[in-house]
Write a structure and sequence with these properties.
alpha+beta; 5 domains; eight-stranded mixed beta sheet; six-stranded antiparallel beta sheet; binds S-adenosyl-L-homocysteine
């Protein structure tokens, strides 16, 4: 009998948690019995017997049923309870001993229970599976099982070992030695003196043997399972192997022979890796320890002993988080409580590389989105457009998989600062000045309008031993606590992601980026925890001919991601629908990624996704793909090719359909993408504006400009930051006095779109033989002066300045009024004070905490570098006008203009009468930095 209380039964745990909510329904089933008969069982009827199956219903939680039948009612119930526990992810923790001594006693008792308790073979414990195989044997090995089989299937033993010595968690060899020593003291149990076998001292009764055989059917046919061999030598790549489990043999015996271990007792087992609830584990040869003497002591204390010949398998150790020696085999095989026979599942190279990839911040994200070759970890978070698991969940998974402690989030409620002007603020975060005059954020009065609370969140990352290794602290304020947490979590994820990318290029030593931007690294702890990563990721990428492409793949700042090297599209198909993915819009595509072998001219599908949604401009996909998508419109499809990037990455993506790709060379292959744009949801800003205004705000801005053009009888117009030409385009639809329109923008993509739509309109016009204005599109920055645009009648700059940093906005103001010198300049920009109204109308019911709607709010678009209040804008414009001899008037569109002002605020500058303009462009060498991209009517339309 056990000397200590065994773990609480599954039923007891369920009862503790759910009480009367848990209802067991046991069903009697008649089952045919073949020949022989069972001595210990009363047979109610010749040839049949009564068995049970059980259904467990936990009201409102779940319902499960046993897959097979049980001889005893209570076993059926326990099995059902265990299935429920597994499904719910609950591990029995009750009755856990508090001290190492108590744990030691209990370990002895538990081992005794496994081998000396007559009732044990009747239980559904997976160890009985191992026992039943060994009881089918003859000779020496009858009833003997490897000690590590216990490690593989009893959680409780693990828990106890960890209490005895916390190092046990990371060291299967230490666990082995503990079980060995406990077994020596366990009544009725014997361990061998020269091997790692364990067995009952007395033979089990025939009844017990029979019960074990009934539940655990033997293997009737040999089983062949795919597995992955992970060599200890880093230069050798992991490869696929086949495990052949012979009829009624113990599977660990076959593993032993593959590992060239003496026998299965010399095979050690890691914890499970990869997806939870799988039986994927590393098996590896026990290091050459002096068995009895070493094991009788604490094996771990001998570490470093020179003659012990232990070589650590870095890859396997990194993946499992345990110390693994020598060559290892990653295989999915084992007995579980749920099943009544040996379970196996193939483990392929793809499985292996997915597990490896899944430990990286972007890898977790890619896998969760089922898009390994396309998705990237976005570098901006917004509640409405973030797709997939939240940054916080990702960070928690990352820490769990790296065997760190749970990350610590400290979200603090702070008072919004009351300074009024001048702080540069970034996308969506608050910290922006409060309006100067008593504005009305929301009328419900629940928020302290003068001092609304905001949140900021610091993050701490601890090692398993709870030593601090990274700290992130921030001054960014958010109106919602959850936004503060998610944004900080993302910052940390992006930091780690960067760190791992750099491992590829810095093989020699651990590279720690400078502790800037709120990050503090504790180098000692950090290097300890991540030492293994260096050899694993560094080697697999650097040692092979295929390396990860440059850091450019992972833009830290999406606004600087000017996709200059755009994807070259082929096979563009489908009508231009005019609905195109723009910055900030949510775009849904379908795609196929092929591996194209140039030499063999063969194509293999690597990844398919029929519905993949991402935000443009957030760094959420591979650069080339974003470039491709932004060249298309809804319903169009195209192909492009890209270099074969990181080897680990495409091996992780390579599906069952692909051949063995582990040996292909980078030079002979490319990735080919076939993409179709299915749907585009406009950026939040546009959605908000449309929700509230009719006609839409953008249209109202155009109409505002048209009114001024006609009032002025302007003949020349330049649109600074024309984007995709919405203003220029609409001007062609209104009768105006203009005969020359010019657009300038820094984005070639925007200009290309503008060119397309202007071209369509202008060619129609010329057919109708009405007055056709000249049109030019320039590529360049509006902070540079180009003499060809000097002295125009009117300049417009609509919703542009907030897309550049504040100093650049001021520079533009200076350059335009002092050098370009338009007679009239119209500048529009969002009115920050209007945001609460926009946001309330755009997202009325989505928020969990409705009262927070009235708090300070985020920007309208994450590309905005700032959004100004009326007083900020007026201060900027007034100062500028005064310095350059212009007058300025303020107006706006959207809303009545009453508190809190217009949605879009507008300044109209007018050149004051003067004898001559200040700067006359130099006649000899006038500056012409702009590149003419397109000119009507002289040039032809660009190719795409
Ligand atoms: N005026 C357009 C587009 C507004 S979006 C409209 O109202 O629809 C802002 C535009 O400013 C983008 O097209 C962006 O490419 C452009 N932009 C940002 N910085 C610029 C710079 N320094 N020079 C020229 N254009 C710039
Ligand atoms: Mg804008």
């Amino acid at each position: 009998m056990p000397t200590a209380t065994p773990a609480p039964t599954p039923k007891a745990v369920i009862h503790q948690r759910y009480g009367a909510k848990a209802v067991y329904r046991v069903e009697e089933v008649r089952e045919a019995v073949d020949g022989g008969g069972c001595p210990g069982l009363a047979l109610p009827q010749q040839g049949t017997r009564c068995v049970y199956r059980c259904e467990l219903d936990i009201a409102g939680v779940l319902r499960v049923a046993t897959p097979g039948n049980f001889v005893r009612k209570k076993d059926a119930e326990q099995a059902a309870a265990q299935i429920a526990l597994d499904k719910l992810g609950i591990q029995p923790t009750a009755n856990t001993p508090a001290t190492p001594e108590e744990a030691w006693e209990e370990l002895i008792g538990r081992i005794s229970y496994f081998f000396a308790d007559e009732n044990f073979p009747a239980s559904s414990h997976p160890l009985v599976g191992h026992l039943s195989v060994s009881l089918r044997r003859t000779g020496d090995l009858l009833g003997r099982i490897p000690i590590s089989a216990i490690v593989a299937c009893d959680v409780k033993v693990h828990t106890l070992c960890k209490i005895i010595d916390p190092k046990a968690e990371f060291d299967p060899l230490l666990v082995l030695s503990m079980i060995y020593n406990a077994a020596k003291q366990s009544p009725g149990v014997s361990v061998s003196d020269s091997d790692f076998w364990i067995q009952s001292q007395r033979p089990y009764s025939p009844e017990a043997v029979d019960l074990a055989f009934q539940r655990w059917s033997g293997i009737s046919d040999p089983i062949s399972v795919e597995a992955v061999f992970v060599p200890c030598v880093m230069e050798d790549e992991p490869k696929t192997v086949r495990l052949n489990i012979s009829q009624n043999e113990h599977y660990m015996g076959d593993i032993a022979s593959m590992l060239s271990a003496t026998d299965s007792s010399h095979v050690l087992v890691s914890r499970t890796v990869g997806k939870t609830s799988s039986e994927i584990r590393f098996y590896f040869p026990a290091p050459n320890v002096q068995l009895v003497s070493d094991l009788s002591n604490n094996v771990a204390s001998h570490r470093g002993d020179g003659n012990m010949n232990r070589v650590i398998n870095k890859r396997a150790s990194y993946i499992s988080g345990q110390t693994i020696y020598g060559d290892a085999i990653l295989v999915n095989v084992g007995y579980t409580r749920r099943d009544t026979e040996l379970q196996t599942e193939r483990v392929t190279l793809c499985t292996y590389y997915r597990i490896l990839l899944g430990k990286l911040p972007d890898g977790i994200y890619k896998i969760s989105k089922e898009s390994i070759l396309v998705a990237e970890l976005p570098c901006v978070y917004s509640r409405t457009s973030w797709k997939g698991p939240s940054p916080r969940d990702l960070l928690c998974s990352f820490c769990r998989l790296q065997r760190l402690s749970e990350p610590h989030f400290a979200a603090n409620r702070v008072r919004a600062s009351c300074n009024t002007l001048g702080s540069a603020v970034c996308s969506e975060k608050i910290g922006s000045p409060k309006p100067a005059t008593g504005s009305q954020y929301g009328n419900d009065g629940r928020i302290d309008k003068e001092n609304p609370d905001v949140f900021e969140c610091d993050v701490k990352i601890y090692s398993k031993k709870r030593e601090l290794l990274l700290e992130y602290s921030t001054d960014d304020d958010w109106s919602k606590e959850s936004d503060a947490i998610q944004n900080s979590a993302l910052k940390v994820l992006v930091w780690f992601n960067h760190y791992f990318k750099q491992l590829n290029t810095l093989l020699e030593k651990i590279y720690l980026p400078k502790s800037t931007d709120g990050f503090t690294i504790y180098p000692n702890t950090f290097s300890q925890e991540f030492a293994m990563c260096l050899s694993v990721y560094g080697k697999t990428n650097g040692g092979n001919s295929i390396t990860c492409s440059t850091v450019g793949l992972f833009p830290m700042d999406p606004s600087h991601q000017q996709l200059e090297n755009s994807a070259f599209l082929t096979d563009v198909d489908g009508q231009d629908s005019g609905v195109f993915p723009s910055h900030g819009s949510l775009t849904c595509i379908d795609y196929i990624v092929y591996l194209f072998m140039k030499d063999k001219r063969k194509r293999y599908i690597l990844e398919v996704n029929n519905e993949f949604e991402f935000e443009i401009g957030a760094g959420a996909v591979r650069n080339q793909l974003e470039s491709c998508v932004t060249q298309l419109s809804v319903n169009q499809s195209a192909r492009f090719v890209d270099e074969l990037s990181d080897r680990d990455l495409f091996l992780a993506a390579a599906s069952e359909l692909s051949p063995d790709l582990s040996k292909i060379s980078r030079d002979s292959c490319v990735l080919e993408f076939s993409v179709k744009v299915l749907q585009v949801t406009e950026p939040l800003e546009d959605r908000m504006e449309k929700a509230l205004f009719n006609p839409p705000l953008s249209k109202q801005r155009v109409e505002f400009a048209v009114r001024h053009i006609n009032q002025l009888h302007a003949t020349t117009l330049v649109d600074f930051g024309c984007g995709s030409g919405s203003l220029l385009d609409s001007l062609l639809e209104h009768p105006t006095t203009l005969d020359k329109i010019v657009g300038v923008d820094i984005s070639r993509k925007g200009l290309t779109r503008a060119a397309k739509s202007l071209h369509q309109k202008l060619s129609k016009k010329s057919l109708m033989q009405t007055a056709v204005p000249t049109a030019v599109l320039y590529h360049g920055s509006i902070t540079d002066f180009d003499s060809r645009l000097y002295g125009f009648d009117i300049g417009t700059c609509l919703e542009v300045i907030e897309h550049v940093e504040e100093d650049q906005a001021s520079l533009f103001g200076h350059v335009v009024l002092s050098s370009f010198c338009p007679a009239v300049l119209i500048v529009s920009t969002p009115n920050y004070e209007y945001n609460p109204i926009l946001q309330r109308s755009a997202m009325p019911t989505k928020d969990e905490e409705p009262e927070e709607n009235a708090g300070p709010c985020k920007f309208r678009n994450h590309d905005h570098k700032f959004e100004w209040t009326r007083s900020q804008f007026q201060r900027w414009a007034t100062g500028l006008a005064a310095n350059h001899n212009y007058s300025v008037e303020f107006s706006g569109v959207g809303g009545s203009g009453e508190e809190p002002g217009y949605a879009s605020q507008i300044a109209v500058f007018r050149r004051m009468a003067r004898d001559q303009v200040e700067t006359v462009p130099d006649e000899d060498d006038p500056p012409r930095p702009y590149e003419t991209l397109w000119e009507w009517p002289t040039t032809s339309i660009p190719s795409h």
